[in-house]
């Protein structure tokens, strides 16, 4: 089914201004005609064609050979807006200097999986993006073959040109684009041998880098539309409370205030989907002329709240998870051999419990969305990782058919999983519908932090049995979480230990939780890799050698058949980081921690160096080895790895969200501590395994293991093992 | 509402806003200069950093009156064409991930480098410590500031 509104929004570029020596073209996205629209930066001296030829949903080629490539997936900072078009351009043999990248809106006719989540954009898009480029190239070759009257096999392509070398003739893509557009799309296509890649594997600058450095309007919060009002929400102060009554008379009387409305994102009869998770379905919304006026009116609302369910406390959370783990009535997820007997026979048994608090996502751009809902249509613009799910929710909640709903995805000021849950889009739509005007819903930082879809709180108890030679003969994991266990029972060291058991415990809560960068892995990797460090020490073995011996066992003589990792690739990153970090050479004054983990189909190993200045530990350098298959854009990939490392160190070290009587105790950055420049590693060195296999996840995998590399290094520097996040409660770290 | 005369990026503006309106919201809502970002509203994250008479300031926590009679520069006015050495260094080092905090980072860095032409690493780290980057691009920010110092 095709959309019958706003098709022009994603179809046409137009020249609006020149700046910076290059052309800036605006696409129909933000602002009314008289105001500047979001500019797309184009390389200097690139002439924008009058006429475009559409080859497929991804590609338009101008009469002068300039190519526009749509980036289908939402951009949250993972740089897919550069990498995905690079993959199309590679197989097209386009000249990257003559490529314009345009963000696609939600368009389920042309694109699949327009989602930013699970580090899967490149992995899932890899084949189809390549085929898209290759098929378009073939159509251009077919057109050239007709024009030059030579067989297609005699033609070759390079950088946007078609060559017939035997007769020394050259055609620009632009010269055959019109004819190519009417060619039949080939059903089958041969893709390049990765050895012949020219663009993939070359560091390519972020296509939005120039705009970001200029402060161009790119984000949802920057949206300005004709007649747009500002909306803000007021939510209950505590999980477990709901609205009782509202007195909005004072707020309504304030300057610039238009309306106060009550909305419910879960109307009767609507069955929420997974992406509809929200803290509070019923909210009060204030609508006015300007952000500051609405902010002030929000404070003037007099709302009575009432208890709806329990008001939970962090102390209670910890006690409940401890009780759950001690109850022994967990769900057994996996059992190999006879763990109980093996523990009885063990020479040494080590048992340790690790925990971590709830975390907020704290994207730098708070939640927001623009919505213009009319009787039978809805137009939305904003930051969303799951636009296609939001579309389904809007259809259900508004009663407007999908084909009359358009969603444009803005660049996002961070995602980290928070914008998988699009309730703020639904809220904006309901507010627009109620006040019969286009609105931009804006969360304050406090709104954003205190009604999140938080990283769950976790507690896990590990138990290991060693024989007299220091071999790991028994391993048990009991995992609890609010609301679910963090354990992946088929991951390492499953498969490497003869006697192995996993039990999971669930603790119910009324606090809304959800995916947070590398869900579950973000905690369990740190717990597991901290524990293995302690076990290796008890076994009297080098922590890297100890881990590699387990991988050898999993490779040569695996236990069970469901082990969801490749032991050789896992050991490979450990060997690489061992070599690159000079692990075998003692470095006086440097305290080192190692960690390795597999998630999102990629393998990461890290060595973190701590030094001590004035008696206080400081993170000096991090070495990181990554196996994510083919690296599309090396500099962008390194940036992701660096970011995950800094993010992981920061949250393990400093961050926590606690509750008292259901009230989040941290509501802004004065109390919620995020890592800052001074606390970041002085340097990060990244090495990729070059194995030519298809690409896998990159946005998440470097985060989970780093907390353990930090804990293990701090143990060597201070003699204190760290079990409970955030570590700042136990050790100081020099900023 | 009271009227204020402002000089922003070399241009004069007259605005009618409530007296307690922070400069940030005058820039964003009234003047549609949205390069200056809202991050926390309490001067903790640095996303809203602008220059007032050349000095870095947090526009989210300064009422509009603080801008009167002063020379205000926002990211849009740092250079006409993105050619400021700090902007160029940010592009060269491919600093941003999500990009949301970077205008504030660039404004802090450019005010700092205007006063300290040859900073040490430690001085850079101290100067940039007030600006949060949730994506964790800190090592790139540091490298870009060093490059900008060399090219200034």
Euclidean distance between termini CA atoms of chain A: 56 Å
Name the poorly predicted regions of chain B: none
Give the strand order of the largest sheet of chain B, numbering strands 1, 2, ... along the chain: 2-1-5-3-4
Q: What's the CATH architecture of the largest domain in chain B?
A: Roll
> How many alpha or pi helices of chain B?
6
Shape of chain B: globular
Largest interface: A-B, 71 and 64 residues
Treating each run of at least 4 consecutive H or I residues as one helix, how many helices of chain A?
Answer: 16
Q: Which CATH C-level class of the largest domain in chain A is it?
A: Alpha Beta
Radius of gyration of chain B, in angstroms, nearest whole number: 15 Å
Please indicate the count of domains of chain B.
2
The rounded Rg of chain A comes to 28 Å
Oligomeric state of the chains in view: heterodimer
Beta content of chain B comes to 15-25%
Describe the structure.
The complex is a heterodimer of chains A (735) and B (152). Chain A is α+β, with helices and mostly antiparallel strands and 735 residues long. Helices cover 28% and strands 26% of the residues of chain A. Chain A folds into 3 domains: 51-214, 2-Layer Sandwich (Aldehyde Oxidoreductase, domain 4), CATH 3.30.365.10; 227-309 and 361-450, Aldehyde Oxidoreductase, domain 4, CATH 3.30.365.10; 315-359 and 454-729, 2-Layer Sandwich (Aldehyde Oxidoreductase, domain 4). Chain A is built from 16 helices and 30 strands. A 7-stranded mixed sheet of chain A has the order 13-14-11-21-18-19-20, with helices on both faces. A 5-stranded mixed sheet of chain A has the order 16-24-23-22-17, sandwiched between helices. Chain A is globular. Chain A starts with 12 loop residues before the first strand and ends in a 17-residue tail after the last helix. Chain B is 37% helix and 15% strand. Chain B has helices spanning 23-30, 75-78, 85-92, 102-115, 121-128, 138-151; strands spanning 3-8, 11-16, 49-52, 55-58, 71-73. In chain B, strands 2-1-5-3-4 form a 5-stranded mixed sheet, sandwiched between helices. In chain B, β1 and β2 (11-16) form a beta hairpin. In chain B, α3 (85-92) crosses α6 (138-151), α4 crosses α6 and α5 (121-128) crosses α6. Chain B is globular and about 45 Å long. Chain B starts with a strand and ends with a helix. The chains are: A alpha+beta (735), B alpha+beta (152). At the A-B interface, α4, α6 and α15 of A face α1, α2, α3, α4 and α5 of B.
């Amino acid at each position: 089914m095709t959309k019958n509104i706003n098709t022009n929004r994603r179809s046409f570029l137009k020249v609006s201004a020149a700046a910076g020596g290059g052309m800036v073209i605006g696409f129909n996205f933000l602002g009314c005609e008289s105001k500047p629209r979001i500019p797309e930066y184009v390389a200097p001296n690139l002439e924008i064609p009058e006429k475009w030829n559409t080859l497929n949903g991804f590609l338009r080629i101008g009469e002068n050979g300039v190519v526009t490539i749509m980036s289908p997936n939402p951009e949250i900072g993972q740089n897919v807006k550069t990498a995905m078009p690079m993959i199309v351009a590679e197989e097209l043999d386009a000249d990257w200097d003559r490529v314009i990248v345009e963000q696609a809106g939600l368009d389920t006719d042309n694109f699949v999986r327009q989602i930013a989540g699970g580090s899967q954009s490149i992995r899932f898009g890899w084949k189809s993006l390549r085929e898209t480029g290759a098929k378009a190239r073939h159509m251009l070759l077919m057109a050239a073959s007709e024009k030059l009257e030579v067989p297609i096999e005699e033609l070759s392509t390079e950088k946007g040109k078609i060559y017939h070398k035997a007769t020394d003739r050259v055609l620009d893509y632009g010269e055959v684009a019109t004819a190519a557009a009417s060619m039949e799309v080939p059903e089958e296509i041969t893709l390049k041998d990765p050895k012949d890649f020219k663009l993939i594997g070359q560091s390519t600058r972020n296509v939005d880098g120039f705009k970001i450095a200029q402060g161009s309007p790119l984000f949802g919060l920057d949206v300005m539309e004709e007649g747009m009002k500002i909306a803000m929400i007021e939510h209950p102060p505590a999980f477990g409370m709901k609205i009782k009554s509202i007195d909005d008379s004072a707020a309504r009387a304030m300057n610039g205030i238009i309306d106060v409305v009550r909305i419910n994102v879960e109307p009767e009869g609507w069955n929420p989907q997974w992406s509809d998770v929200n803290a509070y379905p019923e909210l009060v919304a204030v609508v006015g002329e300007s952000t500051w006026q609405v902010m002030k009116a929000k404070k003037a609302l007099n709302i009575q709240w009432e208890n709806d369910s329990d008001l939970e406390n962090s102390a209670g959370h910890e006690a409940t998870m401890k009780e759950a783990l001690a109850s022994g009535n967990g769900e057994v997820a996996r059992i190999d051999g006879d763990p109980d007997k093996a523990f009885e026979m063990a020479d040494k048994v080590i048992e340790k419990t690790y925990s971590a608090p709830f975390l907020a996502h704290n994207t730098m751009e708070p939640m927001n969305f623009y919505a213009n809902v009319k009787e039978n249509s809805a137009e939305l613009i904003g930051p969303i990782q799951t636009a296609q799910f939001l579309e389904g929710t809007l259809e259900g909640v508004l009663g407007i058919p999908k084909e009359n709903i358009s969603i444009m995805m803005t660049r996002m000021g961070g995602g980290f999983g928070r914008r998988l849950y699009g309730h703020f889009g639904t809220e904006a739509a309901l507010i627009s519908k109620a006040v019969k005007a286009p609105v931009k819903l804006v969360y304050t930082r406090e709104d954003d932090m205190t009604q999140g879809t938080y990283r769950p709180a976790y507690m896990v108890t590990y138990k290991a049995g060693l024989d007299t030679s220091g071999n790991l003969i028994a391993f048990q994991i009991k995992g609890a979480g609010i609301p679910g266990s963090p354990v992946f029972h088929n991951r390492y060291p499953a498969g490497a230990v003869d006697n192995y058991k996993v039990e999971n415990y669930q603790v119910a809560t009324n606090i809304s939780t959800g995916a947070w960068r590398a869900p579950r892995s973000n905690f369990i990797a740190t717990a597991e890799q901290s524990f293995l460090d302690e076990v290796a020490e008890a076994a009297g073995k080098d922590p890297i050698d100890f881990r590699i011996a387990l991988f050898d066992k999993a490779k040569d003589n695996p236990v069970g058949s469901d082990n969801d990792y490749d032991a050789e690739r896992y050991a490979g990153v450990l060997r690489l980081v061992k070599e690159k970090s000079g692990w075998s050479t003692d470095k006086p004054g440097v305290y080192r921690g190692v960690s390795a983990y597999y998630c999102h189909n990629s393998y990461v190993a890290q060595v973190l160096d701590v030094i001590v200045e004035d008696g206080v530990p400081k993170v000096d350098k991090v070495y990181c080895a990554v196996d994510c298959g083919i690296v599309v854009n090396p500099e962008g990939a390194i940036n992701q790895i660096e970011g995950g490392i800094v993010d992981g160190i920061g949250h393990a070290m400093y961050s926590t969200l606690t509750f008292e009587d259901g009230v989040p105790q941290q509501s802004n950055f004065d109390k919620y501590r995020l890592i800052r420049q001074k606390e970041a590693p002085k340097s990060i060195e990244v090495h990729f395994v070059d194995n030519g296999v298809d690409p896998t996840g990159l946005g998440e995998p470097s985060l989970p293991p780093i907390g353990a590399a930090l804990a293990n290094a701090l143990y060597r520097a201070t003699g204190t093992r760290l079990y409970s996040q955030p570590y700042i409660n136990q050790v100081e770290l020099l900023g | 509402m009271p009227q204020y005369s402002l000089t922003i990026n070399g241009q004069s503006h007259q605005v009618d806003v409530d007296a307690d309106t922070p400069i940030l919201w005058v820039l964003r809502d009234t003047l549609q200069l949205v390069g200056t970002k809202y991050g926390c509203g309490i001067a903790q994250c640095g996303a809203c950093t602008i220059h007032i008479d050349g000095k870095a300031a947090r526009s989210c926590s300064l009422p509009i009156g603080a801008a009167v009679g002063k020379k205000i520069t926002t990211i849009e006015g740092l250079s006409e064409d993105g050619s400021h050495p700090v902007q160029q260094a940010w592009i060269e080092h491919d600093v941003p991930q999500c990009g949301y905090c970077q205008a504030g980072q660039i404004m802090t860095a450019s005010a700092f480098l205007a006063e300290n032409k040859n900073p040490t690493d430690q001085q850079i780290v101290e100067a940039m410590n007030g600006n949060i980057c949730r994506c964790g691009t800190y090592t790139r920010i540091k490298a870009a500031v060093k490059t900008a110092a060399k090219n200034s």
